[in-house]
Amino acid sequence: MSALSLKTSHSSLLNALQHFFGYSSFRFGQEKIIEQVMSGKDSLVLMPTGGGKSLCYQLPAALLPGITIVISPLIALMKDQVDSLNRQGISAAFINSSLTNEEINSIFQRLAEGEIKLLYLAPERLKSRYFLESLHSLPISLFAIDEAHCISQWGHDFRPAYTQLYCLKQQFPTIPILALTATADVTTRKDILMQLQLHQPNIHIDSFDRPNIRLTMADKYNGIQQAIGYIKKRGVESGIIYCNSRWQVENLAKALASAGINCAAYHAGLESEIRNNVQDNFAKDNIQVVVATIAFGLGINKLNVRYVIHFDPPRTLESYYQEIGRAGRDGLAAEALFLYDDKDVQRIIKRINDSDDESRVDVEMQRFQTMQGFIDAQTCRRQVVLNYFAEYTDKSCGNCDICLDPPTLFDGTVAAQKILSCVYRIEQQGNIDYLIQVIRGELNGQVKANAHDQVSTFGIGRDKTPGYWHAIIRQLIHLGYLQQDIANQSTLCLTQAARGVLTGNSILMLAAPRLQKASYWQRNKQVKNNYDRKLFIKLRELRKTIADVEDIAPYIVFNDATLAELASAKPVNSAQFLRISGVGDTKLSRYGKPFIEVIQEHLNA
């Protein structure tokens, strides 16, 4: 079957954008990409998570005469996308392992009769020769490959089934391919192009910047309590916490639940039914926080995630940026909080070096070193990320912990002497946590049993927080004044260099501890609260009621940004309602009446 192409004018594209999606203008780059797709060209598109990649194939799918096939990695994502598209007036369906043969045959019948414009498939489907032959009977206009970095062995979410996608050009040489991803370094980009065998592709590399996400790093000194405190400050907002192990996920989720937080665990060791249930309830706002390994979130379409916490360090900067990109997809303020501990870093380095594949170890170590560069940054963190993705900038972002609270040095000689002296007084018998308990005068069973409540340094640092002392100790380790005895439960030992500090023969300048000052979250500066908060809550409650009745995620009805605009503009008729961003003709006819009624009741109250 030959490729179909269609040239469209600027005005007709804008009309379609308004009609189906309710937007009055394209984001940067979208229109040009869509024009290339409509003309039948192959394309590789790199846009940040939440940057509007999906629209680059969804709008052409609505306008092209044939069918658009979308290769997508997750069943839950397919369902959300299909639910959303059908409510925007674009007929869509998916085929995956959740369907019976009878349901699949019914979908193919509807495809043959022209009733479906978009079909979502998992990459594993293309392994079947019979299935590929079935596709040849369909009038396909476009193949869209979402999360295209999964095709590359250098990509952070490598998925073997994606390596079969080279068959698309072999089986359908004249049908254009649109490959999309949010994070791919230069090596991964080259690999995507080679693997997919794209023909003279249009390559669009958008800005990787997500300025609405605040990048924050804090020392992890009591990680579970820090996470609990942070989440409680955020109220009912949705969030994701990433951990590196299933055990850590289960342990943290249990602790959060015990603290009264509505949360759930998600990792590959759980049964698929449980995982799907967690993702579905998170999307529907029935679960506030998901504690997960990186198995969670690939392609997640939930728009109102307000924060992402990294409880453990990611292995690559790509992974970090992909994961934090799941926050703030509606464009409203969000935060990425990274809780950092040296011990976590050492564990990752050990796991990388345990591999027998030396070449793989070299690559993974190089990538983790870039992650360490981000961790150790003393300049704008967003600059570090953007420069890594070859988007060079010399401007600070003003929305990360470094920019908001620049590192400063202070005379840390006395603080260091207190720590080093305490290590000496307890005869080098404690790890970091124990040393902090002694220096802050915390009288517990272990301290009492060791008689360390009798040493002269007991309680001399009670005027400072545990986080403060943790940060000082970490610097003393980095500077070579203390060592951790890994073979002896990480007990702290003095080095020869410590003598000069203890005797007062040298002045020691240290970095002022970077503490989690309310996570640097400054809502009054980040969000313009120029809408009616009481009305917003009423609209959100209506949205949840409608979503529950239709068994869909609330953001499929309207996202938070649209609700905020409704609560500001307060439209009371259909013409006014249609002018709200995110309201298209289909959604107006489907949802406009109940929302207008709530707004009118609020105004008349």
From TrEMBL:
<keyword id="KW-0347">Helicase</keyword>
<dbReference type="GO" id="GO:0009378">
    <property type="term" value="F:four-way junction helicase activity"/>
</dbReference>
<dbReference type="InterPro" id="IPR044876">
    <property type="entry name" value="HRDC_dom_sf"/>
</dbReference>
<keyword id="KW-0234">DNA repair</keyword>
<keyword id="KW-0862">Zinc</keyword>
<dbReference type="InterPro" id="IPR036390">
    <property type="entry name" value="WH_DNA-bd_sf"/>
</dbReference>
<dbReference type="Pfam" id="PF00570">
    <property type="entry name" value="HRDC"/>
</dbReference>
<dbReference type="InterPro" id="IPR001650">
    <property type="entry name" value="Helicase_C-like"/>
</dbReference>
<dbReference type="GO" id="GO:0030894">
    <property type="term" value="C:replisome"/>
</dbReference>
<keyword id="KW-0547">Nucleotide-binding</keyword>
<dbReference type="GO" id="GO:0006281">
    <property type="term" value="P:DNA repair"/>
</dbReference>
<keyword id="KW-0227">DNA damage</keyword>
<dbReference type="InterPro" id="IPR004589">
    <property type="entry name" value="DNA_helicase_ATP-dep_RecQ"/>
</dbReference>
<dbReference type="InterPro" id="IPR014001">
    <property type="entry name" value="Helicase_ATP-bd"/>
</dbReference>
<dbReference type="InterPro" id="IPR018982">
    <property type="entry name" value="RQC_domain"/>
</dbReference>
<dbReference type="InterPro" id="IPR032284">
    <property type="entry name" value="RecQ_Zn-bd"/>
</dbReference>
<dbReference type="Pfam" id="PF00270">
    <property type="entry name" value="DEAD"/>
</dbReference>
<dbReference type="GO" id="GO:0046872">
    <property type="term" value="F:metal ion binding"/>
</dbReference>
<dbReference type="GO" id="GO:0009432">
    <property type="term" value="P:SOS response"/>
</dbReference>
<dbReference type="GO" id="GO:0043138">
    <property type="term" value="F:3'-5' DNA helicase activity"/>
</dbReference>
<dbReference type="GO" id="GO:0005737">
    <property type="term" value="C:cytoplasm"/>
</dbReference>
<dbReference type="InterPro" id="IPR036388">
    <property type="entry name" value="WH-like_DNA-bd_sf"/>
</dbReference>
<dbReference type="InterPro" id="IPR006293">
    <property type="entry name" value="DNA_helicase_ATP-dep_RecQ_bac"/>
</dbReference>
<dbReference type="GO" id="GO:0003677">
    <property type="term" value="F:DNA binding"/>
</dbReference>
<keyword id="KW-0238">DNA-binding</keyword>
<keyword id="KW-0067">ATP-binding</keyword>
<dbReference type="GO" id="GO:0006310">
    <property type="term" value="P:DNA recombination"/>
</dbReference>
<feature type="domain" description="Helicase ATP-binding">
    <location>
        <begin position="34"/>
        <end position="202"/>
    </location>
</feature>
<dbReference type="InterPro" id="IPR002121">
    <property type="entry name" value="HRDC_dom"/>
</dbReference>
<comment type="similarity">
    <text>Belongs to the helicase family. RecQ subfamily.</text>
</comment>
<feature type="domain" description="Helicase C-terminal">
    <location>
        <begin position="223"/>
        <end position="369"/>
    </location>
</feature>
<feature type="domain" description="HRDC">
    <location>
        <begin position="529"/>
        <end position="605"/>
    </location>
</feature>
<dbReference type="InterPro" id="IPR010997">
    <property type="entry name" value="HRDC-like_sf"/>
</dbReference>
<dbReference type="GO" id="GO:0006260">
    <property type="term" value="P:DNA replication"/>
</dbReference>
<dbReference type="Pfam" id="PF16124">
    <property type="entry name" value="RecQ_Zn_bind"/>
</dbReference>
<dbReference type="Pfam" id="PF09382">
    <property type="entry name" value="RQC"/>
</dbReference>
<protein>
    <recommendedName>
        <fullName>DNA helicase RecQ</fullName>
        <ecNumber>5.6.2.4</ecNumber>
    </recommendedName>
</protein>
<dbReference type="GO" id="GO:0043590">
    <property type="term" value="C:bacterial nucleoid"/>
</dbReference>
<keyword id="KW-0378">Hydrolase</keyword>
<keyword id="KW-0233">DNA recombination</keyword>
<dbReference type="GO" id="GO:0005524">
    <property type="term" value="F:ATP binding"/>
</dbReference>
<dbReference type="InterPro" id="IPR027417">
    <property type="entry name" value="P-loop_NTPase"/>
</dbReference>
